[in-house]
Amino acid sequence: MGKNNMPVTVMEGGDTVLDVLPGKYRPSKIFRFSDLPALVPRYTEIQGVQWIPNKKTGKGILKFPSDYDTSNKIAIEVGTNEYVSYYGCTFTNTRQQDVTLHMRHAIEDFTYFSNYLEDWILNPNGMNGSGLERHDFSHVDCPIDKDNGVLIIAKFVNEEETILHITGFHIPQRHCIFIPGGIIHINDYLKGTWRTMLSDGPVNYVYLVKDGKKFHFEFANSEFMVAR
User: Fold this and answer.
1) What pTM was computed for the model?
2) pLDDT, tens digit (0-9, with 9 covering 90-100), for 203-214
3) Which of 13, 50, 98, 152 has the maximum number of C-beta atoms within 10 A of its C-beta?
4) Which string of b and e fits 127-137 if b means at least 16 CB within 10 Å?
């Protein structure tokens, strides 16, 4: 009872009730959300970019406009199936459809040490710069550890490929994300051990470049930032 002994409403039912009779069901047939609007993850929109591949070396550039502020921080989101589906990805434990692989793939564990970004990606004797990539083969990544860094996924939202939406995802431990061929992504900011499915097909990699200088992304949510 509330003040002056008046009843207090603490919960209210919806207008419709789904009647579920005894039987065996797929959970997706019961707990469905088709009546709800699609969820869109937080993302950073970057306009005026130009993806310039280099077929000879496999390492081109993603050219940013001169007015782009490289101190801008990329939006972070916790990876859920609906959020990553904005970029065409799914989690293998929720995917209902079969997957067709058009080439040989291999599954292997890779460990990214805390200094991976500085000592390998940004090192002139290593990758010599961070970037983004896309390729025709499919890709599965599954973090073995809880503290696993940030997986970047992105997409162009116009036919001219000048407007980029990009999100840094924190993938929950032991959740396997399926990245189909052609999806833009990068592993530069990962930490810990990841079980990964890859193929040996060509990779279309581009360095992040503004006014002829390479740079790397920072992230908006400090709790997910890669240790520097």
Assistant:
1) 0.85
2) 999 999 999 999
3) 152
4) bebbbbbbbeb
